[in-house]
Structures are given as structure tokens and as C-alpha cells.
Amino acid sequence: MVPTCADLRRPVVLGRDGNHPFEVLGAHPLTVGAGVHAVAGVRFALWAPNAQRVSVVGDFNGWDGRRHPMRSRGGSGIWELFVPHAGEGDRYKFEIVD
After folding, report:
1. In this structure, what are the phi and psi dihedrals at residue 12, rounded to the nearest 5 degrees?
2. How many CB atoms lie within 10 A of CB 84?
3. Quick check: helix, strand or coil at residue 13?
4. Rounded CA gap, 8 and 72, in Å?
5. Nearest C-alpha neighbor of 78 from the set 44, 30, 29, 45
6. Which helix (H) or strand (E) holds 80?
């Protein structure tokens, strides 16, 4: 999957520039694609600048950190992942290894 967080400049994520971190970080329902190729899911994003590895675990993957490892967005400290078929109301946590 391609990155799903459009603007991950550090000031934006940290609430500077008049934006709010909750608009970028956390869990946000998202549909990727269009028409018959549309896939609904959830985009997860977390700021963990010192992490070596981050996974999202939850109801949708049996709380198994091996199933959905997140991608680091370079030097921004942001980790992100789109999880197809996850939905609103699914419980989740971030599994962080530093």
C-alpha cells in the first residue's frame, strides 16, 4: 500500500501551523480506491520517533503484532498503516518496540 497520511511534516503533526494532531494521528476510517475496487478500512498513524518497530494489534487481527507491522515515514517519527476491513468500533492498541 502507498502511504495514506498526506501531510506528515513534523509541525503539522505536532499541532503547529494551526492544525490538530488528532486530525492526522490515531485511527481514521478510510476508503481506498473507487467503485468496485473500493476497499474500506482504517488508517492508523502514530508518532513514535524512538521506536525500532511498531505494529497495530486489535480485534481485526487476533491481537497478533506480527500481522500488521507499521511503516516508518522516515525522519518524521510517524508510523502508519492502512488495515483493510478494520472498522469503527474495533478495539486496537499500538505495540511498540524501542
Report:
1. -65, -50
2. 12
3. helix
4. 11
5. 45
6. strand 78-84
